[in-house]
Amino acid sequence: MGAAICLFRLCILSVRADWGPKSIHIEAILRAWNIDADSVVFIDDSPMELDEVHTAFPSMTCLQFPTKQPAAALALFEQLRDLFGKRLCSAKMRCVRRA
């Protein structure tokens, strides 16, 4: 397989959790960060949640997390790494992207 993929808590910038529509939280995050929906990738394992978010933000990339499919999950993480990864993270995070 390849090198392990690590996700540090410092890499997660916002966590919001409750039973309300996810699009409401996403809208608040977009406003707080002053970014457009087309700059974000939303990942969920529920097709219903993905549809709700995509309906609210048609320009947002919405990807389904593959449950019970480790190889597909790894492929998704590698896709995200390639979309957003950097050659070197800050020294504080002490992580290096492997080529």
What is this structure, in a nutshell?
This protein has 99 residues and is mostly helical. It has helices spanning 22-33, 47-56, 70-84, and strands at residues 41-44, 61-64.
Describe the structure.
The structure is a single chain. With about 100 residues, the protein is mainly α. It has a domain at about 20-85. The chain is about 35% helix and about 10% strand. The chain has 3 helices and 2 strands, in the order αβαβα. The protein has helices at about 20-35, 45-55, 70-85; strands spanning about 40-45, 60-65. It has a two-stranded parallel ribbon. It starts with about 20 loop residues before the first helix and ends in a 15-residue tail after the last helix.
Q: Name the helicity range.
A: 25-40%
- Unreliable stretches covering 5 or more consecutive residues: none
The biggest beta sheet reads: 2 strands, parallel
Number of DSSP E strands: 2
Radius of gyration (CA) equals 15 Å
Query: How many H/I helical runs?
Result: 3
What's the order of the H and E elements? HEHEH
Name the overall outline: globular
Strand order of the largest sheet: 1-2
Mean pLDDT: 81
Gap from first CA to last CA: 14 Å
Q: SS-based structural class? A: mainly alpha
Task: Tell me what portion of residues adopts beta-strand conformation.
Answer: 5-15%
